[in-house]
Amino acid sequence: MSARTTLPNRPGEGADLARCSLNTATVKRATLPEAVDAAARAGFGAVGLWRDRVQETGVQRAASIVADAGLRVSSLCRGGFLTAADDAGIASALDDNRRAIEESATLGTHELVFVVGGLPASGVPGAGPRTDAGPGDRDLVAARGRVADRIADLVPFAADHGVRIVLEALHPIFAADRAVISTLGQALDLAAPFHPGTVGVVVDTYHVWWDPALREGIARAGAEGRLAGYQVCDWSLPLADDALLSRGHVGDGYVDFPTITRWVADAGYRGDVETEIFNQSIWDAPFDETVARVGEGYARLVLPSLDTRDDG
Amino acid sequence: MSARTTLPNRPGEGADLARCSLNTATVKRATLPEAVDAAARAGFGAVGLWRDRVQETGVQRAASIVADAGLRVSSLCRGGFLTAADDAGIASALDDNRRAIEESATLGTHELVFVVGGLPASGVPGAGPRTDAGPGDRDLVAARGRVADRIADLVPFAADHGVRIVLEALHPIFAADRAVISTLGQALDLAAPFHPGTVGVVVDTYHVWWDPALREGIARAGAEGRLAGYQVCDWSLPLADDALLSRGHVGDGYVDFPTITRWVADAGYRGDVETEIFNQSIWDAPFDETVARVGEGYARLVLPSLDTRDDG
């Protein structure tokens, strides 16, 4: 980890933002160079990248841009969408995920976040209610079984490339159309057969803040060496029309960040903390304003709890 | 249970609807007599009542209307909202819940469904984002502790009245503003210190269909003698603007009713199956049309799996 000093007159009022990472989805309109520049100027230590931004820049060039700015890539988003039941869908998913693994390796990030996909007939997120679904399409147990099978298919390729498949539990609001992994405990159960260096989990507060077993899940992830990432984002009400965009800056909603962050720190997590927010009004704001707000939320509600073990 | 014969030319095309119950929230515009009449004419065996409809009719008279129609009251909705942290809020919650327990006893239903409440500062559901919340307001762990305390306060009164406190896990989408119980397993953990005849749980498919531990939770509820109700309602997408109203008729969404119903039946549940749907377009439909559709969904996707143990 690079040495970073406290920087006055920056977001967070002099706080140490070395472990603060800007996920590029938070500044959706920014090109990769724009996002990296804004993060570096704000004193952040890392960026979390989405594949679309990386691909439009070129993977090699993206790696150089981040490195030249003195930043780390905290994670690449995303692989996944593994629930297809037909041969063509399975082959296509494996191909795409092998490319994502290669891109992670080129970018020099160990952590490739997987959103595993929803019920197969749900199709494109937001496509509306299904009218053609047979009973098999609602078989959540079978869809989860296929996710386990596809992870097993991909593990050797990921291990060969030094990349970790990082399973993300999504809020149950997305169980039908985006991810049949809904809890951290379930993600850990799916990861259990594999080496912790090859299959891990990420904790995203927006998705798991409500989970009564969250504390135990985070502790287990740490003990197993699988805690590969920590993403922060608040749960706001009322929900946006598109629930996917119904997220808020840290501190604007209902999530108890100091408590969850302490659990993450107590589990031994020492990596970057990504702020990843999908929200139209945040996307419409100037990049520097968003980045400043990200730094402020991190400094106020995350950083003090992240360091408890060092203080105690 | 009253003897009910198969009735041709009724919803479900001759299916036995003896265990099919109409929750009055599904026909929100109907008065209690109108809802009872529609359920009875459709051949249903029971109704699930909400307190507002019961109170506007009068509790004694409501009991007579249901009994005269030859129906059972499968449950009363609802008690709960137990998360207040201040003395006045606690006293008010206990008073209201004692009245609900008395109403249940008068109505002759053993099962009083509890929606336990959200984070205290969230206030009225749908009131929008909080602006005045202090850190304590986000303390989900403490809010859950208060729920446990209030249940303990109410148990002796419920036992004296022969009424069971039936804890309902709500979908995590409602964890902030309606219920800090988000999984069936959590509801069972809260119920565990008490006699199963006094504290039970209800399975509502809309709220728990996504839960990877659902099968185990249902089996545990049955083994412990706490499975006090089974409510059916589908998860539809896209979500309605008001997520609370984003529910569909059985068969219109993503829920795997045959599978979940089989788990419920295998757990030994032999009670009524309530259809409880909050949906503006269903509320706008003629009562008889809604009731017919409820009977059809029950007959097609619930009833065949409900009877597996008797067949096998």
UniProtKB/TrEMBL annotation, chains A, B:
Signal peptide from the UniProt entry: none
Keywords: Carbohydrate metabolism, Isomerase
GO molecular function: isomerase activity
Keyword Plastid annotated: no
Segments traversing the membrane: none
Keyword Isomerase listed: yes
Residues covered by the Xylose isomerase-like TIM barrel domain: 36-287
Classification via Pfam families: AP_endonuc_2 (PF01261)
Gene3D superfamilies (UniProt xref): Divalent-metal-dependent TIM barrel enzymes
Database matches in PANTHER family: HYDROXYPYRUVATE ISOMERASE, XYLOSE ISOMERASE
Protein name listed in UniProt: Sugar phosphate isomerase/epimerase
